[in-house]
Amino acid sequence: MSKKRAVFGTFCAAFLQILGVFLITDLPVIRLLPVPGILWFLAVAAYFWAVFFPLPGLKAPKKLRQLARGRFLLRCFAWLALFNLLLSIACFFSPYQLWWYWLIQLFASQLLLFPVLFSGMLRAALSSVQLGIWRRALLLMFWWMPGFNFALALAAAKKIGREYLEEWDREELEQVRAESAVCATRYPILMVHGVFFRDLHYFNYWGRIPTALKRNGAAIYYGEQPSADTVADCGSILRRRILQILEETGSEKVNIIAHSKGGLDARYCISMLGMGDRVASLTTVNTPHNGCAYADVLLKKVPERVRQQIARRYNSTLAKFGEQDADFLGAINDLTVENCTAFNELAADDPRVYYQSIGSRMKNGRSAPFPVSWSYHLVKAFSNENDGLVDTASQHWGENFRMLEPAGKRGISHGDMIDLWRQNIPGFDVREFYVDLVSELKNKGF
User: Fold this and answer.
1) Closest to 284 in 3D by CA, of 312, 319, 311, 260
2) Phi-psi region at 139: left, alpha or beta (left = phi > 0; alpha = psi -120 to 50)
3) Which CATH number fits the domain 189-443, given the four candidates 3.40.50.1820, 3.40.50.10490, 3.40.1830.10, 3.30.450.20?
4) What is the pLDDT of residues 229-259, one digit of tens each?
5) Cβ-count burial of 73 within 10 angstroms (0-12 exposed, 13-18 middle, 19+ buried)?
6) What whole-number distance in Å separates Cα of residue 343 and Cα of residue 341?
């Protein structure tokens, strides 16, 4: 069923629900009119139908149904809140001495509209990725403020509506190619995370990307190296991880997709630990092959006492979460320009491995949330154009290099490349990018 038919199929039910909510929330004024008792009964039924039950006729995955429902309730709340405000003002200035109805109307309408808002926000919170924390918080704090609640609810509904259409388009695309298995590569995919993060199951470092790849036939595994450690130590852990994957799957090799420092860890594993015969391809994403300016600043400009204090706090915090061997300064030290230059001289590419790299850049400090918005200016001051952490010149490695620059003023940040903030960026679908990337590896015989 197309999006337009699905929306049209719910029109009648939505109209009845809006009518019911209108009659109930404007009860103090509507009660003055000669309305039949049966209509009040139907209005109450429609009100509870709107708040607690989904719209019928919408044939879509559960998440999309929740998105559509949340959008409907938020828009319903917004327009009725505005109408109630105008109606209350009319009652206040009425020549028929209805000023006391104004007080009743204002209180009752806001109180009865709150379940509509709460139901819409609950559905949005459970299903929407793009709505964001601030919109949720502002709506919950200012739902009672006439006029302001209208603007907030309408803005949230617009955001959800855009997400709904984007996700429906993607769902239709996935259904069309479901049998094609475009990401079913010859060798399994090993995804290697960068510094200061872990590939945890309850907060996946790669966002929505692994799910998209699995839906299209990819076999996904994770590096599981520490969040902060030297390149040599992380490379050794990757070596053990590769051997483990090969034993589990019976495969001869793996394809590695590595982000940020993970690219250096993977290169060390291949070149310095003799794993070239076990790796078919290495794709590095925003990896600082020639070093990071911020690492040099931290180690050379920040006083030793401050560096040690930061390192102790980071390492002790990670120890509480089970990572006993975190090495903050060891990880940072391996990212300096000097050490990366020395590493490049030692770690020659293995001719048996296909190397390629991906890069991106931010176009301004507004391209990403804090702290990347701040670090963008820091890196630019000491180097050049960058993705918020790594300058573009440092991201280039291997036989094939691609610089991603979508149309518009935003650009693509270091975190965007791993779907860190789960944002749908105009002109750049990160999930589809990785599907295409893995599909290319499959077509190359990897």
Assistant:
1) 260
2) alpha
3) 3.40.50.1820
4) 999 999 999 999 999 999 999 999 999 999 9
5) buried
6) 5
